[in-house]
């Protein structure tokens, strides 16, 4: 049972007092997570006004518990002591949160919260009506507020670097920038080579119309195949698939579109990767940073590792295609190679990030990153976003959006006030490749395991080297301990060069 | 958005400050309600350890917010002012809660909480093994703790009266006692007359085996027929059916047993009654006692009114049976009269409260009430419970349990430390009859409406006279305003005398 605050204050050990406090905050946060899952998955449509109040109350309570003077005093006391390494890690993580939350005035947080609440419908309407000007003043206001927010946290730092650290606190922005530049420099010619290739991959393997029941049965099949622990999880549908929860209860959602069976399967595998990370956190650490997942880069590395390195691999389709064929007659004649090709096709005219393949995806991210960075620094005016966006698409991807709805209005993130989030998608893919290479270095080539549907070794390696540590190590430390190297894009670039060089029979790759 | 505590403290109006505080507590409570719904309905089985911590954290936070010095100071300040009637009601309700929670030491609450957590498996095992002695020491300990709890709240009062007030604060124990004695005195001869009647009612109308899909379709049909608002609700299954939520989102659960279609329908109607009350609370009152339901007597009056006065009425089956016949072929030849008789059959050998009919039910309650009262006063020793229980069953119901599993171990409530809860079941039935009579007094006989499936007038009357008031009036005030009379068992006894006199062709009824 969580300790009562009054009782906790009588406990003399400052570490235990900090732990009690942070455990309570964590429990309130997980309660809010259940409320959000409920809202997306099962809540009746008219439940919103009450749910908004409930979430707001929990958020205020967490904030007050974290920023109370008592937290600061305990941190100072503990920082002057020599603590065991695990406790040091807890103090480090709480300190970081405490400093960020205490430095930003509550009124500003509330102004951002209200502005984003209104920004969402404004963005939606602008997108529906292809009217960037309708969204522009809101975007401008959000940038201004987030700049102010960053300035409170660190007036001497680049505001965009401060915002990026909300999503990835330990890989600094220079690292992200270096990696993204390298992706841009190396992927642009690779994509160009792919687009000039004479090879035609099978593209209609998954063509057909599939009802929800079949798609759900297959989504459950794929989770079974990967070893999802149903005693600590469940599968539901949501308009925007996500996964959430704790090491005791980590749930997956997916969505079914009649004509996109492959999309629902890859999305399910992606969310499995997130949930599987959460399920690998230590039970004993529950309630403190030691039992909480590292940030977005590491989380996304887990979803991408399963989605791409497993779920878009040749041996995976050798293993899983028979199950699909048994479920749906439309795929009767398909071969694993057909499925593999369809899952790895590179598009030459795709404007939409969420529909992108493994290669072009990162150029979608690079474009958003460059635009966000320049918006925050003031080098780019909001009014110029559509043109710059379209120019960059033409330059990097060879396609020019005809509308802003298909261009700079396509993503929801800016309406949430999220600037600095996008890069973590690419960093996650890059880390996935590095971790997968390290796992194969330790375990040997994993193709036979995947072909046999045996994920124990791979998952055991991830549990041992990534999941169980929670936030004990910073992201760079975690990466170095798991892979023996600093964070690097080498493995990702090797992986895509080899895979797509082979698929498209490219010379020099 | 809920107001921040720090911000609230800057607000000068003490009523607004109290309202902010109580709204926050209410939101935390509703968040906990969602977590409990989730636990019963959708949570994966291994989620329990984290869920227990989350609920415990929310409970501690509510307790601390309520019992903070600030709450007491605001109450004192507001009690010295002349407030509008609605605000007075809020202050009255918060004061009552505040006094009760501040008077019981937190350690005792925690001891009760730990003891009941362990009592549940002990009771379960004792019931499974028909071994009262295994449960006796725990029961003894719980009685002792609850006596101590009552003593903290009011050392001068009868402990059982104090405990009863946790479930029904405004109808005092003497009222409950008077009503229960009257039920005992009048129902024993009525049941006797029924058992001596030569009339054989149709009992096998709903006999058959019905799969979950058919039962669920029918449960949805019955909710449709009653006018359940699906935009603010949902139907799921749970091992122990319940309903929970707010005026924005009040959910129903039910359960399906293959051979008990009638049971799932009546249970669904019962839970509809609870949810329908919640949905009738005022939106503006959300967050304060004005938007919260009155206590167990009034809540149970709503479930019983729909379950019994509507769902076990002749016109209801004239209206609804065709739907059942369309869904399940087993009922093809059944008439509404057959269904009405089956739904109102009085058992002459039933030992189990939850399987009882509308008449014998209250003797099950009377027995528990008399035993609880004597246990709390010390007039009855725990060791003597089985014998006294069995004697009373023989005396009031003419049946003697052969095992304690079917006797004093059958109900879960004592293992929860709930003493004083049972009477509210009977008080709810009694109030249901009084309200239904008052509604018919205002609206005219409702049989034609029910036969036509038109519940607008009845529900409108309940909304107007009961639901919308929330906790604005105390229970006796609410009853008197709605019915023009004090709380009385007259209407219930008239209702059952007429109904069962007619069904069983009893002389003198």
Labels describing this entry:
3 strands, three-stranded mixed beta sheet, mainly alpha, 21 helices, homodimer, 509 residues, 3% strand
Structure at a glance:
Two copies of one chain form a homodimer. Chain A is an all-alpha fold.
Would you give an account of this structure?
Two copies of one chain form a homodimer. Chain A is mainly α. Helix content of chain A is 63%, strand content 3%. Chain A has 21 helices and three strands. Chain A has helices spanning 5-10, 14-41, 48-67, 69-79, 85-103, 106-128, 132-153, 159-167, 173-196, 212-226, 261-279, 296-310, 314-327, 336-343, 361-377, 385-397, 422-443, 447-451, 456-465, 475-483, 490-503, and strands spanning 235-237, 243-246, 249-254. In chain A, strands 1-3-2 form a three-stranded mixed sheet. The mean pLDDT of chain A is 96.
Beta-strand residue fraction of chain A: under 5%
Q: Strand order, main sheet of chain A: write it out.
A: 1-3-2
Main sheet: strands, sense, barrel of chain A: 3 strands, mixed
Q: How big is the Rg of chain A?
A: 23 Å
Largest interface: A-B, 53 and 53 residues
Mean pLDDT of chain A: 96
The tally of beta strands of chain A, per DSSP, is 3
Assembly form of the protein: homodimer
SSE pattern of chain A, N- to C-terminal: HHHHHHHHHHEEEHHHHHHHHHHH
N-C termini distance of chain A = 58 Å
| Broad shape of chain A | globular
Low-pLDDT stretches of chain A: none
Question: Count the helices of chain A. How many?
Answer: 21
Helix content of chain A: 55-70%
């Amino acid at each position: 049972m969580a300790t009562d605050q009054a009782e906790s204050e009588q406990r003399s050990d400052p570490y235990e007092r900090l732990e009690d406090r942070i455990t309570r905050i964590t429990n309130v946060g997980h309660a809010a997570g259940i409320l959000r899952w409920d809202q997306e998955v099962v809540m009746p449509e008219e439940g919103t006004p009450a749910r908004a109040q409930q979430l707001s109350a929990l958020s205020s309570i967490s904030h007050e518990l974290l920023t109370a003077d008592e937290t600061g005093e305990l941190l100072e006391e503990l920082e002057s002591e020599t603590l065991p390494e695990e406790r040091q890690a807890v103090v480090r993580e709480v300190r970081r949160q405490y400093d960020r939350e205490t430095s930003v005035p509550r009124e500003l947080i509330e102004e951002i919260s209200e502005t984003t609440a209104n920004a969402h419908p404004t963005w939606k309407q602008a997108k529906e009506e292809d009217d960037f000007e309708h969204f522009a003043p809101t975007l401008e206001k959000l940038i201004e507020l987030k700049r102010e927010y960053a300035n409170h946290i660190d007036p001497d730092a680049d505001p965009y670097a401060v915002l990026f650290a909300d999503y990835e606190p330990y890989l600094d922005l220079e690292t992200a920038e270096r990696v993204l530049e390298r992706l841009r420099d190396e992927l642009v010619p690779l994509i160009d080579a792919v687009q000039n290739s004479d090879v035609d991959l099978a593209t209609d393997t998954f063509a057909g119309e599939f009802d929800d029941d079949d798609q759900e049965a297959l989504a459950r099949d794929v989770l079974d195949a990967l070893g999802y622990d149903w005693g600590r999880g469940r599968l539901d549908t949501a308009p925007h698939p996500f996964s959430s929860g704790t090491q005791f209860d980590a749930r997956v959602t997916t969505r079914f579109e009649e004509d996109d069976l492959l999309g629902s399967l890859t999305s399910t595998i992606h969310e499995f990767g997130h949930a599987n990370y959460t399920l690998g956190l230590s039970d004993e650490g529950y309630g403190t940073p030691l039992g909480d997942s590292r940030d977005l880069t590491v989380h996304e590395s887990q979803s991408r590792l399963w989605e791409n390195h497993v779920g878009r691999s040749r041996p995976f389709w050798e293993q899983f295609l028979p199950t699909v064929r048994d479920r749906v007659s439309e795929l009767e004649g398909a071969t694993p190679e057909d499925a593999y090709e369809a899952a790895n096709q590179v598009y030459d005219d795709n404007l939409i990030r969420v529909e992108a393949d493994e290669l072009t995806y990162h150029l979608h991210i690079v474009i958003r990153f460059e635009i966000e960075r320049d918006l925050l620094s003031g080098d780019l005016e909001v009014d110029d976003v559509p043109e710059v966006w379209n120019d960059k698409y033409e330059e990097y991807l060879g396609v020019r959006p005809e509308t802003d709805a298909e261009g700079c209005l396509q993503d929801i993130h800016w309406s949430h006030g999220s600037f600095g989030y996008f890069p973590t998608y690419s960093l996650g893919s890059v880390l996935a490749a590095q971790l997968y290479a390290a796992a194969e270095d330790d375990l040997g080539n994993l193709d036979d395991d995947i072909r046999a549907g045996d994920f124990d070794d791979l998952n055991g390696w991830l549990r041992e080297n990534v999941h169980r540590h929670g936030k004990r190590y910073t992201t760079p430390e975690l990466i170095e301990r798991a892979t023996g190297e600093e964070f690097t894009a080498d493995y990702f670039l090797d992986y895509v060069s080899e895979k797509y060089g082979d698929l498209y029979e490219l010379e020099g790759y």
